Structures
1.
Amino acid sequence: MLKKQKGKLISFKPYNKVFYLCVGKREYMKRSLLFFLILICITTAKSSNIEQDTLNWRDYWLLQGKVYLHLSQGAQINWAKGGDNIFSSLIKTQFKTKYKKNKQIWDNTFNWNYGFLLVGVKEEQKVEKRNSDDYIEINSSYGYNAKGKFYYNALFNFKSQFFKGYKYPNDSVVVSNLLSPAYIIFSAGMIYKPSEALSVMVSPLTSKTTMVIKEGMVDGTQYGLKEDDRIYKEVGAYITINYKTDIVKNIKLENELTLFSNYQYKPENIDVELKSDFNFIINKNIKALLSLHFIYDDDAKIPVNKFVNDKYTQVGYTKGLQFQEKIMLGIGIDF
């Protein structure tokens, strides 16, 4: 049985373990183009700013990466207790390049996380798809040694997502999409780097831009924009702290904390983001991950839902701490 629904072709058989999902051609091309542009930026970064007489680039460049993949699936046939067929997938990737020569340090990081859930609803003969994670981040930090462990520093940071996010359980209202929202930060300041495990950057001059380019599709007011605006600019102070350590032999912890204060509007209301990853090494390729992500953004509006007449209904918005937690057990590759 084949149905066409919202630019997607979905093939579903209620007792089949395999689901087929094909994204529309135009959206596929747009996302593929952005993905390959990002890859090009990463791969070309390693070759730029290297002197032509450098014979061994490995003396100055360090390339690292890791990929985690988790899959789960369940099928039911004539199951008396009821239930639906289900398939879930979650991938977490990170690629790093580091250039270090004389007084210069240049760090580049690309992060991409994506997870989805497919549920086969037998009674309605369809597949419901929900995103469980969708996150892109590009970070580039250049430092020039001032004295000892202190560096003059310039930083660029970009965050967004690839795919549409919906206001579940209502899957007809789009709340996020490609570059909607997108966050861009430019900052200049000083960085203290006593070791490879710890770095602290303080920037008194930072530009933060929030964009929602899908006009009419995504409500920008949820992300601090005024109605009908597509760009919101802020100027303020920015602090970022990175720390990693080995808790015990096979458990590694990586932390990243960022703080931003807007000089122009309520500087006392600081935007906070904390990411903590606990990496559990079982063997060379089997690994577990506990990932915690906290965000407080004073400009973001969080929907408030309550049961009204036995229906889960949005009754307003609030401000508060956002939290996301992921536990993964599957294949992990570090290189």
2.
Amino acid sequence: MVMLQPRSSGLFTTLEAGNSHEPSCRHCRDQRFWRWRGAASDCRTPVFELVYAAGEGSAGSRLADRYPGVPDSLAGMVIEKWDPAALPKLDLLFASLPTGTSAAALARVPGEVRIVDVGGDHRHVEGWAYGLADVWPDRIEGQTRVANPGCYPAATLNALAPLLVDRLIEPGNIVVDAKTGISGAGRGGGADGRFSYADCNENLQPYGLLKHVHMPEIASTIEQLSGGNAAGLVFTPHLVPMTRGVLATIYCRGRATTGECLDAARRFYAGRAFVRATEKPPQTKWATGSNLSFVSYAADPERNLVIAMGVVDNLGKGAAGQAVQNANLMFGLPETAGLEGMPVWP
């Protein structure tokens, strides 16, 4: 799909979104393709060139039929049928399949092809680096297999990481209350219509209670960051009537002050291009259309309470933006290549 320059024979590919999924970024395949494409084509240096696209239900369509705003040079490109056994010669593959289906498919991809998997099958799996790029860039550099974090974990873990590393909060009994926009469900509104306009407009829906697929990913990362036990973790996602964005409000136990939390985040992310620690509680619109991540904190030591807040664009840092960031790290490119655009405002 995208050629890495000045290397030769380098292609990226991705897959199209299905029509019946939970509203979780792991399924948002149509949107992700064009966030990837957009991030690559916006780069002001000759890093990426789009040369190949593959899909399932969209196979046979021209790119311009699916995405009318693509450049003229790409408009006539035809989306090919996804078949991991019949790929052209590749340097790097972006894959985004529904959780539970990518492991078998990507096992058929030749070992010399580097992969960023935006699906959920390879997160914290042996042989795959976990691509939490702002927290563990050194673990991603030079890797051949990287598992992109989910959208909710991206917002949650960026906010928690500085506090866990500095032991400002307890790793257990953390409560995550998260909200996301409808684009995380992909195109089509779902087979049962749950994500149609009529169902989502002026409505707030909790879902995935007690068993959301991102729970193990969040718990495992908390334990790695803290060296402790994440027992008692509660994660409750909600679907809100907006197009994109994730806000995670996270309740933790700890005696730190608000200032200590902010100082920890500013130290932890010093020199990191995409994370902003702000005194003002973050808003989803701050990150729209970007790879930025906003974190903030409010703490009351007398109540043994720390509230951490994290915001990302679910299609940017929560999916395609972080995927491109991981690809840059994998190939030794500037981490910010193609990702320095400002958020869309208002």
3.
Amino acid sequence: MADKVLSANRSQLGHSFLNAMWIAGFLAAIQIVAVATAVIKRSPMPEQPVVATPATNVTIPDDFDPSPPLVPEGTPEVPTDIPAESPQIDPQPTAPVTDSKVNRMPAPDLNEITDPVGDVNDSLISILIESGMEDREHGDLEGALSAFLDAEKNLPDHPRVLSEIAGTYGEMGKINEATEYWTRVAEMGEIVAGPFYQIATKVLNGEDPSIPEVEIGKYLKIGKLNLKRQPVSSDGEWVTLTIPIVGKKGESISGKEMDLRVYFYDLINGVTPGQTTATISYDFPSKPYNWAENRTEEIEVIYHQPVFTVEQKQNLGERVYFGYVIELYYRNQLQDSVVSSDELRSLRFPVIEPVEEPISPQGPDTSLFPKNR
């Protein structure tokens, strides 16, 4: 009898023990979750800074074959129309890309146009245009566009205003809007829009509007120059003049038949301009010069004036860079010339006044009108 009672008590004690252990484990789990939640809320993990990994320079071998790899015979085709078995995720809206160099159309420099069709007689509109140009130069394209659109409200059919808007839209990468405004300028015609019509038609035809047209009967023309002048240092004075040379469209041009003459001038003792004593060198960044791939080839001319000794200063004077004269020849015929200042123009190409011979008042040589002896 005692054994039966003891056995029953043991069974009940075992079940009670298991139940107690389950309850204790459950309470412990709840406490752990509560503690973890409190820790996360009170002390969040610090964010790690993202460090950009520098790109690796990859050298493409000479025998690189860009063609697709051959597929061995017997390779089973992989179907491409099988839908992906992945959960559907709502796409996030993305901002339009406006910084792509491929989709940008640089705004032409309209400030150099001196044709009267570009004049704006309203002083307030002129201020808006100048403000827009300044904003665009400093990278504030939104501010520039706002100023030009305000000008359009007052001058809705002005070729200069419409061209500024078109150029700004192009800089922003909004090609459709830029094309719309360039089309409006082109539809005005050359008589109304003048040089703005020519720029618009070039842009719409995919040409660079900054490239000037070569004159009839010539093959080459000097483009927009770029001058970089470094401050005078212990190494002397350095000036780099980049000369774009535009070839006539549709012509076969050889660089061997071209002759480029560049004359640098110094300002001597701060008063008199004179031909330079600097060392002149050349660099040819776009060779070969055949105008086959591009209508423009560039030549860099480097001016270096070393620091003078005391004796050189006495003999040659104090000298600093003053300007240049450029003459471009092709097949021994002058194609174009550029002079940096009117003072150098008169120095390089002096005007020779014709000498007038005195006319003596004498009549016809006849017997009725004998000459005075």
4.
Amino acid sequence: MAHNRIKESCSDQAVYYLVTNRIAGGRMLFRDQEKYKLKELLFAGSAKLSYQVIDYVFMDNHFHLLIKIPPNSEMDDLELLQRYRLYKHNEEIEFMNSAQRDDFREKIHDISFVIGNFEQRFVQWFNREHSSWGRLFGQRFDSEMIEVSAQSDSLLRVMAYISLNPVRAGIVRDPQNFFFCGYADRLAGGSVGNSDHGFFDLFCRNIEAEDARDKQRHFREVFRAYMLGLRRYKNADSQTLAEFFREVNLSEELAWDDLFIHKCRFFTKCLVIGSEAFVREKLSKFSAKMKWKRIHEPYTESEWNDIYSLKPRRKSG
């Protein structure tokens, strides 16, 4: 059966997706061993296929990923051949014809192929490890295209939603203490934070930085302040952040600004997340292809700071 999914591959810009899937029946099957394997396979796959892990969290019965698909024009034929060898497990391949190059380039920049490959490899490992068989995940994964721009804090809100999963579940008080999430990983210097210097240029307008490492550090400070409720983050300078964190440290409890704690389906079932203009642009581009039974339109609520999703129109009455 066809699965509603808005996706695109661009030659001139990256595309970002929030990806979610859950174990069938809500079973709690992801223990530490399974979470280690999920992380291993997720990052290993990026050497073969064309994607970057921006954020992730592995919970006991589900996962969330924030995946960046880079422009397909960035990869030359030599790099494509190297990834093809890895994908085929054959270092002796010396040549790809034009049809093979076009087909493989398209596949490795397709979010459906990327996540399908990741899930398939994990399920194969899981079934071998546990002498089981059959379906592990309840359904095909959900994906939402995310706007990443200075005009919207959609990226920060999605990252906060991912990072605060273990806090919502009551596992930790602070996501930096949950090993299987991107927030703790980036603070520990993991590769998940390699793009943070680029996000600095979007979200840290009044902070000076000397180099890429400095930009990464400042972006992580701004992101933490954002999760803790600093709404004026766009105009925050280093002094503002220092004063904000002093106030936070004086509090007995960390008060996370988790807007969507009771609105999880806003993120996992909505196809597109961004500014109203971004959502309307994707609606115009894809509506004719989707064959929806119900009219879709941008949706938001007053406290969501102009973040919109693409949802079916609510039934009247």
